[in-house]
């Protein structure tokens, strides 16, 4: 028995059936060529091949998209996810100029950023019994993390720049620490 080749209302190949002599409106006796990645479509006279990406997932202009129709991929299509904007992590904030500034760091980082010469001055001031420097030191030792957005950190940095704090930090040191810039010994390479 011969076969008939069925197509749906849009002309897309829908399967094969037995020819019972009377050809249905949605069928032809012409066999389609079935190619991988394509679907045959009856145009009323012959089968044409249309791309079949139905169900594929990807991105169109950077937005997630699932293909729901036959045909070529939409303009702006990519199977690869769009590049994610760089973000160095939760310890950083992006500034208006696009630069990243570290805003949260460990107690050890803070002390390293102050610089060895400053730590020596802090220890000397504590040894001399300076209560302001001792308070700042104790706060630093108690904190697991320090945030330059935290009012306590700002206050600690400013206290170390006051005469009561032994003027251990200069105003430039305070600005540098609050901007999240790493300390460098004078003359050290960047």
- Specify Rg, calculated over alpha carbons: 36 Å
What is the count of helical runs?
A: 5
- Output mean pLDDT: 76
Estimated share of beta-strand residues: 15-25%
- Low-confidence runs (pLDDT<50, min 5 residues)? 182-190
Task: Give a topology summary.
Blueprint: E1 3-7, E2 13-18, E3 27-28, E4 38-42, E5 47-51, E6 57-60, E7 63-66, E8 77-78, E9 92-94, E10 100-102, E11 104-106, H1 107-114, H2 116-127, H3 131-142, E12 145-147, H4 151-160, H5 171-178
Antiparallel strand pairs: 1-2, 1-3, 4-5, 6-7, 6-8, 9-10, 11-12
Q: Could you characterize the architecture of this molecule?
A:
- With 190 residues, the protein is α+β, with helices and mostly antiparallel strands.
- It folds into 2 domains: 49 residues, no CATH class; 87 residues, no CATH class.
- The chain contains 5 helices and 12 strands.
- The strands form 5 sheets. Strands 2-1-3 form a 3-stranded antiparallel sheet, with no helix packed on it.
- A hairpin with a 5-residue loop joins strand 9 and strand 10.
- Helix 1 packs across helix 2, helix 3 packs antiparallel against helix 4 and helix 4 runs antiparallel to helix 5.
- It is rod-shaped, with a radius of gyration of 36 Å.
